[in-house]
Design goal:
The protein is of the alpha/beta class and 303 residues long. The chain is 40% helix and 20% strand. A seven-stranded parallel sheet has the order 3-2-1-4-5-7-11, with helices on both faces. Strands 8-10-12 form a three-stranded mixed sheet. The protein has a two-stranded parallel ribbon with strand order 6-14. The longest helix is centred in the first third of the chain and has 24 residues.
Length: 303
């Protein structure tokens, strides 16, 4: 059995991963987060604390014989400022170094959720993992710096790692009233009868993947111990903001009120992930964007 510790495991991605991991009898799940969970999942052990308390985290690893750490902690988003990036460097990036060091020297696999939408920069087209990283946002920069730290420890100390670069996961459990997650934000605006603000002309193209599909890939990669690689997880298909708005409107039967505001300098025009490598490891058929949005909306209405 694998003993898995998820750092930042009470958020949207982490919470969904945990809900699905407990279905597997070969996985023991532990969660560490700065906030307690809103719902305690049966057979999951929870710990509350800051990632800066690496001694506490290392004691959990030792006491519970953790085999795999999944790191999902970040305090910033793609539109974050310089000061927010500096704070993240201190509270997340620097704080993670002792944990990476401990994992490298104690044979603990280190899995990091990076970003497929921001690390590649302004390239356009379908992007494979072999493309150089050229971030243009502080968020993307923070992800690349973490990736570099992990690979340094792999070269120097033999750290076993897996870097996952997600596209744009969406689905039930995502914050409808936050600042990121286009599909969730649109649904939130519809529920509140508010206007959606979009940057630029709405032709920015992104790769969206339903949360259940994303989680399936993550768990299968862990269960099959795919290590020492970097893997995109996305749908491999791109949709513009305008297309997403139309799809949500069609499925909900609601007109989305839109206002256009100035384009941000760190917005990449098009990012679609090449998922060839992913599917060489895991065979799976994803929901289409229509099926995913419909499922998301149906689950919202059923609660």
């Amino acid at each position: 059995m694998k003993n898995i510790l998820l750092l930042g495991g009470n958020g949207f991605l982490g919470g969904n991963i945990v809900w699905n991991m407990v279905k597997y009898i070969d996985l023991n799940v532990y969660v560490f987060d700065i906030m307690p969970p809103s719902v305690h999942i049966k057979n999951v052990s929870y710990f509350v604390g800051s990632i800066e308390d690496h001694d506490f985290i290392c004691s959990i690893i030792k006491e519970h014989r953790i085999d795999v750490i999944v790191h999902m902690v970040s305090t910033i988003i793609p539109g974050s400022s310089l000061q927010e990036y500096i704070n993240n460097c201190r509270t997340v990036q620097l704080a993670t170094i002792p944990l990476i060091d401990f994992c490298a020297k104690n044979n603990v696999d280190f899995i990091y959720l990076s970003s497929g939408g921001t690390v590649y920069g302004v390239k356009g087209g379908v992007i494979s993992e072999e493309e150089p990283t050229e971030p243009v946002s502080y968020y993307g920069l923070s992800k690349v710096q973490m990736e570099d730290l992990i690979k340094f420890y792999h070269r120097r100390y033999g750290l076993n790692y897996l870097i996952i670069r997600p596209s744009n996961p969406y689905g039930y459990g995502q914050n409808l009233y936050g600042k990121q997650g286009l599909i969730a934000v649109i649904l939130g605006k519809i529920l509140k009868n508010e206007t959606l603000s979009i940057f630029g002309d709405g032709e920015t193209i992104r790769d969206y993947i339903y949360i259940d599909d994303f989680v399936f890939y993550v768990i299968e990669l862990i269960r099959n111990r795919i290590i020492n690689d970097t893997i995109n997880i996305g749908s491999g298909n791109g949709h513009s903001t305008n297309q997403i708005i139309n799809i949500v409107s069609l499925i909900t039967g609601k007109v989305v009120m839109v206002e256009h505001i100035s384009k941000r300098k760190d917005d990449v025009p098009i990012i679609v992930l090449d998922v060839t490598k992913l599917h060489s490891y895991v065979s799976h058929s994803d929901l289409t964007i229509y099926e995913g949005v419909e499922r998301f909306f149906t689950l919202l209405n059923s609660k």
